[in-house]
Amino acid sequence: MSKNFLALDYGTKRIGVAMNMASLVEPLFVINHDAQSSNGEVSQEVLTQLQALCQEKKIDEIVLGISENDMAAKTTVFAKQLTRLLQLPVRLHDETLSSAEVQARLREAGVNLSRHQGPIDHYAAALILEDFLAIT
Question: What pLDDT is recorded for position 85?
Fold first, then answer.
């Protein structure tokens, strides 16, 4: 039986969301938010949205991208919020340069990034999950 993973690319303004369907990874959407505090906590509204998604998609584990320095500390705070609320395992996975790789892939695919409307955080979350699944 394969597990259902929800991947999150956490940022202080947006959270990218992706999940797997068997061995395929699908970028889902981006949640716009402002961190509730300088330490990285997110609003109850964001947590409730993630909780509903986990229940609807029968998620077994969360894969949360973690970078370096100040963002790593904020991501760790967010991970603790998720663990408390969702009562699911939250695995931290290195996401260094995931956004840069997404931009490179989009350019390779012929997407004009200066004309591209909207954030790409959900693609970064998909990349994080692809990498995680490749090594587990």
Answer: 93
